[in-house]
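Preliminary data (for renewal application), zinc ion complex.
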Amino acid sequence: MADPRDPRPLIGEPLSLDLLNTRWRHPVAEDLLSDLTGYRIWLSSAGLADRCTADPAGLAAALTARSALAGVASAEESGQAELDALNEVLAHGRLVHRLAGSGPQESVEVDSPEWLAAWLAADDYLGLLQQGAHRIKRCAHPSCILHFFDSSQNGRRRWCSMAVCGNRAKAARHYVKVNSA
Ligand SMILES: [Zn+2]
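Predicted structure:
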């Protein structure tokens, strides 16, 4: 459930893309993670408010993860530097498997608590790649920087949202038609 204070145009994508989507341009460049208040709102929308503290160290880690994710998501073909940056974030945590009396248990361990949200986001991206790298998309509107995971059956989703960018593109096409008539 998104935090009602969350001002972003696109909320609720998988965690890695949701972290990328803390930056948007509708119509001017905005950044939810420009301060601790925004970071707290992001944690809340992402369902992490009770697992992560909204402190400066956590915000710094989240920003590191966001920039690493932007590197691998945006580059046509990610270079080694982009891969290293994401792997550095991933190196701060690990998935631990244990057998408990109730059965198998899986938990996340991080070097220090501030890395939890950042690690979860980076790890989520690997999960999306396993589900289908071609479904990780950036909105087709040239001035939009939002990302989404295309879970539509035919895999033809193009816009972050039809209401915002789909219609902007339609209006632009109409404008071109009217002016070239
Ligand atoms: Zn868009």
